[in-house]
Amino acid sequence: MINFNGIMLDKSKAILHSGNRAFNYGDALFETIKIADSKIYFLEDHYFRLMASMRMLRMEIPLNFTMEFFESELLKTVEQNNLENARVRFTVFRKDGGLYNPISNQIAYLIEASPLINSVKETYSVDIFKDYYLNSDILSTIKTTNKITNVLASIYASENGFDNCILVNERKYIVEAINGNIFMVKGNAIKTPPITEGCIKGIIRKKILELVSKSDDYTIEEVEISPFELQKADEVFITNAIVGIQPITQYKKYSFNTKVSKELTLALSKLI
């Protein structure tokens, strides 16, 4: 079952018209949310990120679109699919009509729930995707449905036997992975690209920054990272809302440890 504007429908039912703006122009935002034991992980963070992104894209936020409404619609969708552990996608798009200039800034939404599969892989290899770049601008930091670079990088990874790819910007600095933010560990320093490089304002990224900033063992830096620096790293890991922390174990001929990522995984679990 899917939730379309609060109405539960069979997922096989056609609901999007040819004038749908998410389909025609990528005029849409989405949140991918983890629900385990019927508990929504980091609900407030997801809600406020979505609201900030909608304002940035000049979408009209309905008066009833409160955090309580957001929570109830998520849980309703999960319950209607007989799930307690779910990966949920909440997509918001401008209502149908118009060309580049929309007829209205009013929104519609679609919620989908699927069984949660979030196991961390023991071995995980990556490569740099160099065919196309992400832009280091503010629009790249929000989760729109314009993800063609990620799609092409995923195809490249699949064709070449990698688990993931690292995306770079037009200045060839590291931005993020296909499906999450990226962190590099060297000694006691943990580094991640700043938002100005074009990376998504990830929920788990935010939590890692908060955790490490309070740590006596490590320092955190938001700084430009070149692909060459990865070759000197002790550890590299990816963060996203579903898996949490996924250590990278192999990049080209270089192997990485997983000590810090395991420590942070434990610390992150205590926040939930």
C-alpha Rg (nearest Å): 19 Å
Biggest sheet architecture: 6 strands, antiparallel
CATH class of the largest domain: Alpha Beta
Number of helical segments?
A: 7
Can you count the beta strands? 16
What's the CATH topology label of the largest domain?
D-amino Acid Aminotransferase, Chain A, domain 2
Order of helices and strands: EEHEEHHEEEHEEEEHEHEEEEH
Specify the CATH architecture of the largest domain.
Answer: Alpha-Beta Barrel
Name the CATH homologous superfamily of the largest domain.
D-amino Acid Aminotransferase, subunit A, domain 2
Strand content: 25-35%
Please tell me about this protein's structure.
- It is a single chain.
- The chain is of the alpha+beta class and 272 residues long.
- The chain folds into 2 domains: 114 residues, Aminotransferase class 4, branched-chain amino acid transferase, N-terminal domain (D-amino Acid Aminotransferase, Chain A, domain 1, 2-Layer Sandwich); 145 residues, Alpha-Beta Barrel (D-amino Acid Aminotransferase, Chain A, domain 2).
- It is 26% helix and 31% strand.
- Strands 2-1-6-5-3-4 form a 6-stranded antiparallel sheet. It has a 5-stranded mixed sheet with strand order 9-8-7-15-16, with helices on one face. The protein has a 5-stranded mixed sheet with strand order 12-11-10-13-14, with helices on one face.
- The two termini are 27 Å apart.
- The mean pLDDT is 96.
Secondary structure topology:
Elements: E1 2-4, E2 7-9, H1 21-25, E3 28-36, E4 39-40, H2 43-56, H3 67-80, E5 86-94, E6 107-115, E7 125-134, H4 148-160, E8 164-169, E9 174-177, E10 181-186, E11 189-192, H5 203-213, E12 219-222, H6 227-230, E13 235-240, E14 244-248, E15 250-251, E16 254-255, H7 259-269
Parallel strand pairs: 7-8, 7-15, 11-12
Antiparallel strand pairs: 1-2, 1-6, 3-4, 3-5, 5-6, 8-9, 10-11, 10-13, 13-14, 15-16
